[in-house]
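Figure 6 in text form: structure in, sequence out.
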């Protein structure tokens, strides 16, 4: 079945970027001249998505205002055959809860979830690569991380592995380095069966006292399965100051009109 709906959870507090996120949603932080959420939309559109669902909350109105303009100017986003919907998440209770907020707009179709924090730069759409390899099991984008970094991610317990796919027999949310079963970490791209809602609605809070999407994926492995997808391209963790700065510098270095600014800066520092 074609996947055409994508959920963007944009209701987080952005505490790692305080105080600027008191006024600007973290998804609106810029990579040169476009905010993070703009890049995420471009990737979703390149993957063939035409139904966009943003799970938002109080204080995020600038996201809606931004896309009000973008969607009326087809040179930015030509979605004449699609639609954009906004769902309110009245309190940040975790990624699983944010996904559950979109339940009534998804129905019984498989769907995608994208985190704008995970900025993935490549000529191919990461989400497009995933949909091309989707087989009906829940699928997540994965990267290998350093052992000391596993406590920041959902980590797969690997049953088998091929060039692009990792079949998981289990998944743990933010395990310690000593308890992690691998270094295959989930990053912000998911293709999910709509059956995930049946699990999320009854799920108790997990790590951080939040409704964790990884806990739902774990419960679904016996019936649906869980596949990690090793995507092409470079991923930047733009939920952190370091990752956002790296992304800005990398994008600038690829732009001929901006690269000289970086070069001149380092020449002056030398």
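Output sequence:
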């Amino acid at each position: 079945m074609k996947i055409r709906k994508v959920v963007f959870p944009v209701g987080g507090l952005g505490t790692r970027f305080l105080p600027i996120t008191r006024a600007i949603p973290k998804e609106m932080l810029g990579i040169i001249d476009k905010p993070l959420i703009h890049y995420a939309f471009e990737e979703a559109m390149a993957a063939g998505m035409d139904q966009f669902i943003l799970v938002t909350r109080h204080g995020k109105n600038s996201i809606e205002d931004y896309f009000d303009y973008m969607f009326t100017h087809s040179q930015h986003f030509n979605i004449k055959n699609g639609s954009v919907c906004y769902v309110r998440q009245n309190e940040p209770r975790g990624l699983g809860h944010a996904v559950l907020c979109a339940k009534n707009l998804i129905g019984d179709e498989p769907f995608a979830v994208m985190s704008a924090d995970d900025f993935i730069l490549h000529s191919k759409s990461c989400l497009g690569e995933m949909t091309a390899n989707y087989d009906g099991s829940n699928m997540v984008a994965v990267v290998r991380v350093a052992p000391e970094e596993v406590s920041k991610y959902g980590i797969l317990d690997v049953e088998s592995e091929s060039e692009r796919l990792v079949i998981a027999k289990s998944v743990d949310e933010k395990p310690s380095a000593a308890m992690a079963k691998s270094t295959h970490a989930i990053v912000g791209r998911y293709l999910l069966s709509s059956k995930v809602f049946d699990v999320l609605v009854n799920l108790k809070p997990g790590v951080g006292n939040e409704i964790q999407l990884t806990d739902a994926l774990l419960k679904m492995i016996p019936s649906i399965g869980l596949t990690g997808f090793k995507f092409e391209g470079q991923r930047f963790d733009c939920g952190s100051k370091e990752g956002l700065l790296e992304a800005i510098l990398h994008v600038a270095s690829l732009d001929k009109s901006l690269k000289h600014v970086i070069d001149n800066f380092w020449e002056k520092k030398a």
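Caption detail: The chain is about 30% helix and 25% strand.
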